[in-house]
Amino acid sequence: MPQFVGDLRRMGFVNxxxxxxxxxxxxxxxxxxxxxxxxxxxxPVDLIPQTTTRPGDRISTTVVSRAELPEGAxxxxxxxxxxxxxxxxxxxxxxxxxxxxxxxxxxFDELREQLFRCDFIPCPHxxxxxxxxxxxxxxxxxxxxxxxxxxxxxxxxxxxxIETTISWIAFDNDASQRAHRRMGAKRVxxxxxxxxGSARVVxxxxxxxxxxxxxxxxxxxxxxxx
Length: 226
Description:
This protein is of the alpha+beta class. Helix content is 25%, strand content 38%. The chain starts with a helix and ends with a strand.
């Protein structure tokens, strides 16, 4: 079976077409033109499964400060964590004994995405937040780490009156989309970010719906969780 047929069946036509268009533009332009497409998913906080800790459990989760998180962990660019903390993001870390094995991040105001040069604002303010960069070391992805991180996030969000957490997922990331749907998340919108060198055009279901920019300008998208 040709690979594209398998990809088409796995992703569905819309996701596959967006993925294929981006790859074709990237190849034809030598990487100068990209068309990245992403879904916005809203996860009701009260549907996030809760876990319990038992005596002898080696995996634990906690909110960590910048001093407790080594820069460059899990291959992230040096300085990325400092920027996230400066912007008010919260990091929940998972450890096995004392070893850092994963994390997830929360943002209650605007999520400044470097990849797209977009700022995502969760709406309604005070009742929605963003979750992003959920990661667990590959050798421990069948452990309780993912569930523990989500359970800790649920408690943290509930304490602050947050009803929904939003995330963006690339059109071609079918595994992440399925995982979110299993927890009760639903699609609430999409965005397509077309870049040609330093120029950028953003088309989205989120306000302002259509925008363009050059060089270091940024696009603000107000993503409604309903």
